[in-house]
Amino acid sequence: MNELKIYDVTCEYRKNPIGLDVKKPRLSWKIQSDRRGTTQLAYQLQVSLKFNFETPIWDTGYIESEQSLHIDYAGPELKSTTRYYYRVKVWDHFGRQSDWSDIAWWETAFFETNEWKAKWITPNPQELDPASEPAFLLRKEFNLKDGIESARIYATGVGLYELYLNGQCVGEDLLAPGWTSYSKRIQYQTYDVTALLTSSSNAIGAMLADGWYKGDLSWDCTRNNYGTKRGIILQLNVRYDDGTEDLLVSDHTWKAFTGPILYSELYHGEVYDARLEQRDWSKSDFNDSKWMGTDTLDLPLENLVAQENNPTRVIETIKPQAVLITPAGDTVLDMGQNMVGRIRFTVTAPAGTKITLKHAEVLDKDGNVYFGNLRSAKQTVEYITKGEGMESYAPVFTFQGFRYVKIEGYPGQENGLNLEHFVGEVIHTDMVQSGNFKTSNPVVNQLQQNIKWGQRGNFVDVPTDCPQRDERLGWTGDAQVFIRTALFNYQGGPFFTKWLRDLKADQLPNGGVPFVIPNVVDGDSSAAWGDAAVICPWTVYLSYSDTRLLEEQYPSMQAWVEYIRAQGEMEYAWNTGFHFGDWLGLDSKEDTYFGATPDELIATAFYAYSTRLLRDTAKVLNKVDDVKQYDELLIRIKKYYNDEFITPLGRLAVTTQTAHVLTLMFDLVEGKIRERISYDLNQLVLENDYHLTTGFVGTPYLNLVLSNNGYHETAVKLLLQETFPSWLYSVSKGATTIWEHWDGIKEDDSFWSDDMNSFNHYAYGAIGDWMYRVVAGLDMDETEPAYKRIRIQPRIGGKELTYARATYDSMYGRIVSAWNITHEEVTIEVEIPVNTTAQIILPFANKEDVKENGIIITKVEGIFDICQTDKGVSLVVGSGQYRFVYKNERGFRTIYSANTRLIDLLLNEEMTKTLEMYVPGISNPHGQLARLKAEPIEKLLYHPMSKLTEDRLNALINELNALEEKLVTVQQ
Ligand code: BGC
After folding, report:
1. What global pTM score does this model have?
2. Which residues are 852's β-sheet partners?
């Protein structure tokens, strides 16, 4: 066995992708080694048309380079519709050489528009009304010769389509062709159908529904957003082993009809009458003499692009947990999880039996199914049986967001439903899971699960706000706040590449960015929403070192910043236009969705942030003039921000939590002012008994700025807070996904409102980023993207969390950061992939005291640059697995002092009792002393009502510490 091995070889992020139209695809690989500190010294790549690599078309030879991500193919020009095999070998710094990797491949699709010989077709509108509801069926018979070597279908639709060949469904993709800005870009799919064809007569069939192209979209349920006629274009390219080729194309000779799908809408569900199935309609001996004609459709071919995102599929199936009979008498399936997808069921019933499924996310306070928050989305599926024995059905061109399913008409349901007949099919973009996060606290772990489920349900080809009501749109703000968390949980390179191309395509001529992408609603260019144009490509770059995407998006990023610059009279401020502000912030006035932080502050802060990221992008892309230009712009925006929002002595003039968060997060202040604003933010949280008041804009960064500015323990308390408003409040109310509102379900179990109350909205799940990066401590040095230089810095804060573990499958390989504390010991486990290095900070550690696998660290091979800092021990390591153990100097004890905040005592019953003995009345929330609760205990000395003397204060502190000692001992 060779100790140096290559695995996970990918092309454009994917393993063996079929149907790429990228002319210079990028190749990446991971390396496995049994020696610590392995880095790649050199690589050799070969690309061949034949599996045996006897005559490679491209051989890089020995290239001395550490690069193992995104190597551009640089061989002869690629041909379309061709499979290319590739393999790689590497050398390391220890002088070892790997074997060749397993052979991988990619296959090209079309590079030129004129390779499309097919025509767009649609049922003849004279015979079949384009506005009619049923899904259309299209078919064509054709003959092939003997000796088929390979066959590919290239196809797409306007509307949603599903293909059948000789009676079998082609592929597993759902909701093809996915949702893009159809008037500018439509993805086509490539299917390997070699195994489905016969060397005589064949038939192909396509089902076609409205989908995103012409079905209801947005709260207005506007129809025909992109066109009035559904259509498909399809080309079957067949290669024979004698070198000849055959072609079957969509044209006016195809026939059309309608079938069992009487109605299908993304929001509203499907009606399927199985009695109308046309048996064998996609087989060659079917009699289609009654079928109607087709017409060609005049749609451009230039808009066709090969599939960019991973396809949407059934990713998992889950069984219902229970069947309930509600107080209203409804029979309801409980899936145990708020999921997105569909129900598949089997039934045996006489022909014409109608079974109805109505999907909902939650039950109301009485235990009845709640449909109010769906607004006009019906989420209803109806199936009418054909009565020929056991039937199995799941809707085809729709999906639902639900945990509960009200069932009507299922035979015998009054005597109980057999759960075996139902299964939930979870549907979303097929992404590789890349991250996991776990702690010692099961409620936090549930939060992490909820974040992941929120991502799954809202990554159905486009990053959406929610998956259930009449919206399900690519809201830019939501995507922007969540992207960094998203890219921890799942590999999202192709997903965001596609969406960002749509953003660029839909960007307005003046650089403004529509509220939703693809753009199907009025409105554009709100601060923090439009900034997705800059934040999202930058975040993809950080995660995957994708400079090509940055290059591609640069004009769009720049146009957005220039758009802002051109607004209003003042070049360095953004104080005009409409903004969503700190959307849903809890500091808002009654009856409004807009938080209390002024628009101008948010807009100018984001203006600075986008300018900074644009400058950094220009640096990466070597655009020297732009670096200078945007650096200067940033300085001026910051100056304006300081002049306008910071008082001369350094206080923030706006007293909301969100204003403090943005000021710190975007580095708008420095030095003493930064310290003061951090202190004030902490005070604001303490004064609110460790509760947040932030909305969409402040929430994502709240914990991050607290942790990074000296208040990590406060951030941890916010995470662990279970009372409203908090992340764990929704978990305590039984949430299995992230809610749109902090109080989607109120403390008395009533609902916030029907109007806007999604129970599956990932935005507040943005805390996941901080959980990975800070709580578990798995982070990167951003100057070397894609975790080339890792930073492991667990933050151990408070005794409430004793364990956290994050794993992340980076482009280089798996990274692990895990810590565990007992009263005596701290254990930190780390895994660093080959070809990267890591700086590790062991918090509160003493250099002399740390052992790695039993050996004192100064003597361990592969550990460099060990130095003692005020934070602990800092060291640098290369690849490998490490296990550090050292004494927990601090134990679990909190040490009380004159600086301890009163609130930290008041939240603990025993401590409060002690405190009351010294300062009677202190715990009365309406008393005179209540306003001191966020202050250090010593402040009481100066309050006339407290009657606390210096001596009594010292006695109090001693007593508190003694009590703590007792409590900790009991806990052990
Ligand atoms: C969506 C949000 C979105 C917002 C704009 C809502 O209807 O669900 O998530 O960002 O509108 O403020």
Report:
1. 0.97
2. 855, 884
